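BUG: 3D viewer hangs when loading the predicted structure for this chain

Environment: internal workstation, default settings.
Expected: structure renders.
Actual: progress bar stalls at 90%.

Input used:
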Amino acid sequence: MKKTNRQMVIKQIINNHDVATQEELLQFLKAEGVEATQATISRDIKEMNLVKTTSSKGTVKYILFQHNKMSDKEKLEQTIGEVVIKLTRVQFMTIIMTIPGNAHVVAALLDSIDFPEMVGTVGGNDTILVISPSEEEAIRMYDYFNKWTSF
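Structure tokens produced before the viewer hung:
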């Protein structure tokens, strides 16, 4: 499995479970069908800026360290400018092309924001399909994305 995919699974695991040790993380990964070594997980933890904190239950768990206090919308706008290479709109859908390996990041940011013009997203390796409830709302989404692109 590629590092970006493995790290995406790690992020999902630590967001859904209180993981206190690398060994626990390895067990969760194995349950997801991901084979990795202790050394690999250790590197992933460092690269992903995972830190330990105290959970609401008083136990220790890994979380993603937030370098700054940017809102999800600010992160989305910055990321769009950095990784989006093409935009296309077809009726009520907006298709976003990114640098390979970045579509899941943009899709996750989109999913974290409650855009009334968006019903949902489907993200692959370098393509995101943004589905809107109407053509008019798709036009607004396209215009929003286009405002932040740098191509």
